[in-house]
Known about the structure:
It is a single chain. The chain contains nine helices and four strands, in the order αβαβααααβαβαα. With 206 residues, it is of the alpha/beta class. The two termini are 30 Å apart. The relative contact order is 0.17.
Amino acid sequence: GFGASPRPAGELSLLDLAAALRDLLDELSLHAVDLVGNSLGGWLALHLAVTDPARIRRVVTVAPAFLYGLPDSVTAADLAAAAAPRDVESMRAYLGRVLRAADARTDDAVHAHLERRSAARDESSTRALAESIVAGEGLLTDRLANVAAPTLVVHGRHDGVVPLAQSERVSSEIGGAMLRVLEESAHWPQLDETEAFVRAVEEFLS
């Protein structure tokens, strides 16, 4: 779970996440929303735009991941380890892929991220999600042309997780989509260039 919400019981798959978001929208009586998602959340935003278009007014997808599948050489264990590093050096390398700022990789920052990961106690959930990704669940290959919602694709120039070429492909496959590349950002541009990111999103949504 995020924030103070509990982690759902049982093992999660990508399609479970999509169902959970639909359930949340129903619970809040939100019939059509603007949706912003980063990385796996970027996949989720686009997946809902394809599979439940009436619910999505506009989409901002930020370095969307796992849209087209993974190389055969990538295992679920590899993906889980990369997404949830458990030691200092792995965490430092991970932060170097997702954040551009040098102070994001200081000893204090690395240990703070490790403490949060340890507190999450989400090893089984992470492995289950990795297995569903490796299995090709929820692929959007040849489906993005069905996105009818106005779409903004945001990508950091220095992203060490998702290649810029993938966001370029996404923006070319969605009719009328706009691509915005933030030059001083990595995989989390909302943290690397917060003001530029917020400005781009607000301009798009307005």
